[in-house]
Amino acid sequence: MWEGGEYTLTMEFTDDYPSKPPKCKFTPVLFHPNVYPSGTVCLSILSEDKDWKPSITIKQILLGIQVCICIRRTFIIFYV
């Protein structure tokens, strides 16, 4: 559904980069399970409290976003 599309992503780097991750946001907002209603990407390597490391490159960030957008995750909930 999202693969092959063209999307605009804004990456905002603060003076604290690379100690702190950049803020990555789709504009306009992309309707996707891994994108918050604000347009912010939900990716653990972009979370300072989770998996961010100063050694993560911009290329790795972009590849991570590409993978999380292109791979469709289907969750099945079973009620027993």
Beta-strand percent range: 5-15%
Largest sheet: 2 strands, antiparallel
Mean pLDDT: 88
The CATH homologous superfamily name equals Ubiquitin Conjugating Enzyme
The 3D shape can be described as globular
What is the CATH class designation?
A: Alpha Beta
Q: What is the CA-atom radius of gyration, in angstroms?
A: 14 Å
Number of helices: 1
GO molecular function: ATP binding; transferase activity
Protein name: Ubiquitin conjugating enzyme, putative
Keywords: ATP-binding, Nucleotide-binding, Transferase, Ubl conjugation pathway
Organism: Babesia bovis
Give a concise summary.
With 80 residues, this protein is of the alpha+beta class.
Record keyword descriptors for this entry.
nucleotide-binding; Ubiquitin Conjugating Enzyme; 80 residues; UBQ-conjugating_AS; UBC; ATP binding; globular; 2 strands; two-stranded antiparallel sheet; alpha+beta
